[in-house]
TrEMBL record:
Transmembrane segments: 6-39, 51-76, 105-130, 142-168, 174-198, 250-267, 279-300, 320-340, 347-364, 370-395, 407-431
Location(s), subcellular: Cell inner membrane
Domain TRAP C4-dicarboxylate transport system permease DctM subunit: 12-431
Record's subunit section: The complex comprises the extracytoplasmic solute receptor protein and the two transmembrane proteins.
Name of this chain's protein: TRAP transporter large permease protein
Its membrane topology: Multi-pass membrane protein
Domain of life: Bacteria
UniProt lineage: Bacteria, Pseudomonadati, Pseudomonadota, Alphaproteobacteria, Acetobacterales
Key words, A-Z: Cell inner membrane, Cell membrane, Membrane, Transmembrane, Transmembrane helix, Transport
Function: Part of the tripartite ATP-independent periplasmic (TRAP) transport system.
Organism, scientific name: Falsiroseomonas selenitidurans
Keyword Transmembrane: yes
Amino acid sequence: MIEIEIGLALIAIMAGLVLAGVPIGIGLVFLSYIGIGLIRENWDLAGRLLALASYAAISDYLFATIPLFVLMGLLVSVSDVGKDTFEVAQHLLRRLRGGLGMATVLANAVFGAVTGISIASAAVFTKVAVPQMMRFGYSPRFAVGCVAGSSILGMLIPPSLLLIIYGVLAEVSIGGLFLAGIIPGLVMAAGFMLMIWLMATFRPDWVQPGAAQMAPPPEETTRSLLMKSVPITTLIGLVLGGLYSGIFTPTEAGAVGAFGALLIALLRRRLNLAKFWRILVETGFVSVGILFLLIAASMYSRMLTMAGIPASIADLIQALGLGVYGFLFVYILFVLLLGMIVDSSSILLIVTPIAAPIAMAFNLDLIHFGIITVIAVEVGLLTPPFGIGAFAVKATLNDRRIGLETIFAGCIPFIGVMLAVLALIVAFPGLSLVFAR
């Protein structure tokens, strides 16, 4: 059996293992060892190469970014910053149709600028925004769909864990990816808000059937708004300002952000030793899981390269005459299908080692390609049966009256906006590269 046949057979086996429920990291490591052993016909060499990959894959100083941003996100989540952000956005948008829904989107966008974890956003705003929207007559389907749909902004607006993972796998600048995510993230947030306004204006029965008029403005003073805005704006200024001005590297920005989030939680008296220990333990679990997956993906990438899979697929696509847009169409469709059965990090681990070299063969900018990939992966957070964003809302809400089918139905308009923004980014690469260049 020649190398290319071995590689293709192992990709097919990997798909079977995913469908069978085998943990993605275990499957990648196992198949990488089998593939290298068969290709080189030397099992001892296969073991040594994988041992070397396990060290080289995460030995770089850059990988400290992952636990630091995870820690920052968890600290922000417990300090009620999300609640305050929502209340400020609610006040600012109180006179617009669908104002509470738009406030949820705006708060998610701001919150995502300091967490980078969509699940954290979904959990926070399920507790904060859903009860408030239902109180003022918004339909349960719209309320939960709005929270789940807008929670994905945390995975696009920097800092983003998905962008970090893609940057490591594709070996491109994480700082450049962060810069590239700004405009697409803002465009998507604006698209969500426009969609909510249009629905509230022309089909109010879909949005707020329980009220004849908009919710009354919340009682807020200029001083209270400023006090609620200071923590989140300070943290954003520290992390993104330092990062984009060149004062901090991504790793240093993560450290500064984590320290700032710790100070905020302490000053607001939302943290004690027991809660802080639980946050540290959860940070460890999340970070180790991600780092192990990156090790497995590094091994898998080496095996595919030895088998010549990326080069062969690129040659096949060029021979079929699909061109760059044909390749992107097939690639995006494949990622969307994977999103129905596989979580977002695992999708990146599976497709990036194969797709990034092909994208380079078509002279695609890997930073632009990364933004396309992350947006396509984000759609999977909202699509059944595996949509983890919907599951996070359901678990946090804990309301038997609202089922998963209601949440998935509420996400449909947001998926439509995401696909429209994805098409826009594909057609106009400058939207993602204007700051990254």
